[in-house]
């Protein structure tokens, strides 16, 4: 990707995460500090590590650790244990979503086993995103299915020294075969 396209992407992410300037009248130029920022390899590696840790926590049923990494204004798109799409807005909505997973873990023996296939991250020192591909095997109600190919996107911003996820979007990367 050309540097100018990458910088434009950083500006869009910065504005989406609250780091941009106010809206400008049509025909004027809007400048943000992120538009002048460069990608930071150390920041991207740190973010990649946090994403990998979230996947480990998901497989381990450590939903509290996942919620602890979410931003107060998080928007989450995922699938519930019955494979229905879910949207959760804000930390309270995300907490309720992970409580449904915890309940399914306790009552239906929900377990996942994920294998990260690819994690592409770009970050500045204040904002970043990762595109993730993974295979996931799901055990629910005595039945094991998969592995299924999933894709996920994580957008995060720094809160002090830590990354906080502002947007998490997970979806099937391929349609699973019918039972």
Characterization of this structure:
This protein has a six-stranded mixed β-sheet with strand order 2-1-6-5-4-3, with helices on both faces. The model is unreliable at 1-31 (pLDDT under 50). The protein contains five helices and six strands. The longest helix has 19 residues, at 41-59. With 179 residues, it is α+β, with helices and mostly antiparallel strands. Strand 1 (70-79) and strand 2 (85-89) form a beta hairpin.
- What would the average pLDDT be, to the nearest integer? 83
Q: Please write the string of helix (H) and strand (E) elements.
A: HHHHEEHEEEE
Low-pLDDT segments, ≥5 res: 1-31
Largest sheet: 6 strands, mixed
Total count of strands: 6
Number of helices: 5
Order the strands across the largest sheet as they lie in space.
2-1-6-5-4-3
**Class derived from helix and strand content:** alpha+beta
Q: Based on CA inertia axes, which overall geometry fits? A: globular
Separation of the first and last Cα atoms: 40 Å
* Residues in helices, as a percent range: 25-40%
Q: Characterize the quaternary organization of these chains.
A: single chain
What is the gyration radius calculated from CA atoms? Answer: 18 Å
Beta-strand content: 35-45%
């Amino acid at each position: 990707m050309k540097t100018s396209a990458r910088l434009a992407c950083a500006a869009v992410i910065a504005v989406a995460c609250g780091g941009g300037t106010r809206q400008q009248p049509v025909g004027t130029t809007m400048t943000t500090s992120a538009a002048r920022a460069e990608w930071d390899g150390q920041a991207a590696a740190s973010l990649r590590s946090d994403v990998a840790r979230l996947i480990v926590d998901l497989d381990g049923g450590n939903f509290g650790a996942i919620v602890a990494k979410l931003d107060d204004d998080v928007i989450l798109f995922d699938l519930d244990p019955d494979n229905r799409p879910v949207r959760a807005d804000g930390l309270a909505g995300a907490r309720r979503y992970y409580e449904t997973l915890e309940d399914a873990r306790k009552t239906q023996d929900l377990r996942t086993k994920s294998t990260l296939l690819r994690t592409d991250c770009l970050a500045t020192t204040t904002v970043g995103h990762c595109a993730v591909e993974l295979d996931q095997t799901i055990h629910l109600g005595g039945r094991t299915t998969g592995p299924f190919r999933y894709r996920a996107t994580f957008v995060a911003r720094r809160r002090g020294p830590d990354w906080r996820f502002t947007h998490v979007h997970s979806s099937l990367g391929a349609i699973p075969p019918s039972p």
